[in-house]
Amino acid sequence: MITATYDLTADGVGPVRLTATDRGQGRPYLLLHGGAGPASAAGFADLLAGEQPARVIAPVHPGFDGTPRPETLTNVRGLAAVYNAFLETLGLTDVVVVGNSIGGWIAAEMALLGSPRLGAVVLVDAVGIEVPGHPVVDFFSLSLDDVARLSYHDPASFRIDPDAMTPAQRETMAGNRAALAVYGGSMADPALRERLSGVTAPALVLWGEADRIADPDYGRAYAAAMPGARFRLLAGTGHVPQIETPGSLLAAIREFTAAEVSVVGPDEGEATLTGPIRMRILEDGSTTGHRLGLGEITIAPHTEGPPQHRHARHDEGFYVVAGTVRFTVGEESHDAGPRTLVMVPPGAPHTFANPGDEPAVVLNTFTPDLYVQYFRDLRAMVAAGRPMTDDAVAEVMGRYATEPVTN
């Protein structure tokens, strides 16, 4: 492991000096600590770097552990800009950002900035949004015993005795608490939950079932706010799984980022639509780091497709395997036979139909995999007995940055 200091310039913040540890080799991970400070993430950084394999970069938020914080750096969005500049400085790509508590909030803001260097985000018991009926506990009113009681599944094993702390440790803890107050305030941005609809990076939200700083329903709301995000509850742990159950946290991250070969046979895959138009999901993004989703569409003869629509945040491809498919783009129509590829960039209006007498088969791609969940949602809607009307379909489309063409 090495420790280095970097001089950065971040948009809206200006010059920043950042200290970070760097360990391991492999896919890069940016590990963002919570209010407990960098020590709360150090052990997990060692574990992650040793098991993946991975290169784990763990910065110290400016102002924590006695590091300098420029007066211009006063909020979480500013920290997100600093870390995006950090990734640029390091020249990294396909970075997995893992953040706990306020670190998770920073990771969410990084995803909203849309850096092409970011590959995925993992939010671990993150704070930052407002959820009616599920407030984040007022951390600054808590004693150390209260923090342990609310943060851990087994508080007795992690209680901190303030009388046993050295003066230096007390000074560091006080400084960390002050920095946290500057960045987090009430631990929520009233506008963040709505803004999260703009996240396009693959996202995993992990939550300790015993978290009483922010309860699991708060976590579920966090995941629901980000299109395509996954939510997973971690058993036997609380607000800081990287300390209490690091093995469980590591396993969940490993599963999310696993690079395994996927082989899907002709009778396999995930059926999402039935009827005149059938959709079989062949790759939901699990194997591709969520960079690519893939489906097979079978269209019955003389069948119209969905209303003409446009996507804002993913490219869509259609490769005709069998039959003839009519693609309509605005006012123009194109009849595409076998071995024809049609690529639709974001913003282009389009739909498809099968005007012929034989079934048509199309290989359908999504980059990134955002739109896979759309078909799952349609399946759930039909299973619930809700008719697949144009209005209902449009409502589901809207969850995935897609809208019908109205003019």
Summarize the model shown:
The chain has 407 residues and is α+β, with helices and mostly antiparallel strands. It has eleven helices and 20 strands.
3D structure, described in words:
The chain is of the alpha+beta class and 407 residues long. It folds into two domains: 256 residues, Rossmann fold (3-Layer(aba) Sandwich), CATH 3.40.50; 135 residues, Jelly Rolls (Sandwich). Helices cover 29% and strands 29% of the residues. It contains eleven helices and 20 strands. The strands form four sheets. It has an eight-stranded mixed β-sheet with strand order 1-2-4-3-5-6-7-8, with helices on both faces. It has a six-stranded antiparallel β-sheet with strand order 9-10-11-19-14-17, covered by helices on one side. Helix 7 links the parallel strand 7 and strand 8. Helix 2 crosses helix 3. The model has no long low-confidence stretch (mean pLDDT 93).
Annotate the secondary structure layout.
Blueprint lengths: L1 E9 L3 E10 L3 E6 L6 H13 L2 E7 L15 H15 L4 E6 L1 H12 L4 E7 L19 H8 L15 H18 L7 H4 L7 E6 L7 H10 L4 E5 L6 H4 L1 H12 L12 E4 L3 E7 L9 E7 L3 E2 L4 E3 L3 E8 L2 E5 L2 E5 L4 E4 L6 E4 L5 E8 L4 H12 L6 H9 L3 E3 L3
Parallel strand pairs: 3-4, 3-5, 5-6, 6-7, 7-8
Antiparallel strand pairs: 1-2, 2-4, 9-10, 10-11, 11-19, 12-18, 13-20, 14-17, 14-19, 15-16, 15-18
Helix pairs in contact: 2-3
* Largest sheet, spatial ordering of strands: 1-2-4-3-5-6-7-8
CATH homologous superfamily grouping of the largest domain: Alpha/Beta hydrolase fold, catalytic domain
User: What is the CA-atom radius of gyration, in angstroms?
Assistant: 24 Å
Chain-averaged pLDDT: 93
Largest sheet: 8 strands, mixed
**Derived structural class:** alpha+beta
In percent, how helical is the residue content?
Answer: 25-40%
- Percent range for β-strand residues: 25-35%
Second rung of CATH, namely the architecture of the largest domain: 3-Layer(aba) Sandwich
Secondary structure: number of strands? 20
Please count the helical segments. 11
| Low-confidence regions | none
Number of domains: 2
CATH topology of the largest domain: the name is: Rossmann fold
| 3D shape | elongated
